[in-house]
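BUG-281 | component: ligand-complex export | severity: low

The export step for cobalamin jobs runs without errors, but we want the raw record kept on the ticket for reference. Input record follows.
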Amino acid sequence: MKTIWEKEKIEYFGVIPFSACLCRRPDIIERRGVPAERIRSAVLFLVPYFVNDGAGNVSYYARSCDYHLYCEGLFARVIPALEERYGERFLGFADKSPIQENTAASMAGLGVVGDNFMLINEKYGSFVFVAELLSTAPPEALGFSGGTPEPSFCSHCGACRRACPMTRDGMECLSAVTQKKGALTAQETEYLKKYGYAWGCDICQLACPMTRKAVESGVQTPIAFFHEERIPVLTAARLSQMEEEEFRRRAFSWRGREPLLRNLKILGESFPYNFILCDSN
Ligand code: B12
Ligand code: SF4
Ligand code: SF4
């Protein structure tokens, strides 16, 4: 299995029994034609995505083309080889997953679960996507070394909580606010303008000493997909020039164009851009 991941430049992966995962959506497995009770293993892996292209109004995860597309391509490359080798079923998931991914990734030894709810890896910080293959193969056959997997947690230093403008003021996560359809409340509008995000929010990640250390080390993703076609700054003009096909390939497209146009109108010319990266906390 190691050579398959090396070829894909995936450095962090690990296997746990499926029974250790918090599975809230067995129906997602069933829809792929495999009864959930047949799944025995979860192969968790991390997809680093950080590219330091500086200030922007799009959060880092959404600056390249959509990571769901990257994962679909990866699954199409690796799953047939694994199914042939092990004679078992492998199903790929990322984000739209039957399991709660961060805790599972930590149980697989890939990092700690932060108070900002991110999986934080020693090399890449939290700028990694979590993805997994769920398999009918027994975990031992895939390299699980035994024992009871337990998640690990961060140092609870509190920097993310102090930096988060929203939870401090009893509001919904700004990332969720940028994705909302319809009109925003006056307070939401004020916060969006103040923090300058047209899509997503990276404040609690950029405040975290573990992620800052990773960013300051100069580490970037080795995966070419995330270096290409980047949009750090989205403008209404750029958005309107995008053909539907190009728009659909972006991570910020899944709620349609309206929330983005609304956000860009609220931001106007104000871009306080990633101010936390420049501050020292
Ligand atoms: C819904 C969702 C969102 C929502 C809600 C966020 C949230 N905090 O829940 C919104 C839209 C706001 C969001 C925003 C973001 N998200 Co999001 N999101 C998800 C999703 C789909 C589900 C998360 C979830 O389960 N939330 C509910 C949690 C908080 O509550 P809970 O289930 O009750 O969890 C608790 C308990 O269940 C318990 N628990 C959990 N597992 C287990 C297991 C056992 C055995 C036991 C006993 C207990 C236990 O501990 C948990 C923590 O207290 C995951 C993908 C996935 N399938 O997991 C991605 C995911 C967490 N998001 C991701 C990203 C990148 C983001 C953003 C950074 C994007 C951005 N830049 O704007 C922000 C960050 C916001 C933040 N700080 O959380 C990545 C995180 C990657 C990483 N390194 O961790 C994920 C993993 C997607 C992926 N595949 O990579 N997200
Ligand atoms: S993503 Fe932004 S709003 Fe959401 S918890 Fe983190 S800092 Fe707070
Ligand atoms: S900022 Fe501190 S408390 Fe928050 S996730 Fe990072 S280490 Fe944990």
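Assignee comment: Attached the raw record above. Strands lie at 13-17, 41-48, 90-93, 112-113, 119-120, 128-135.
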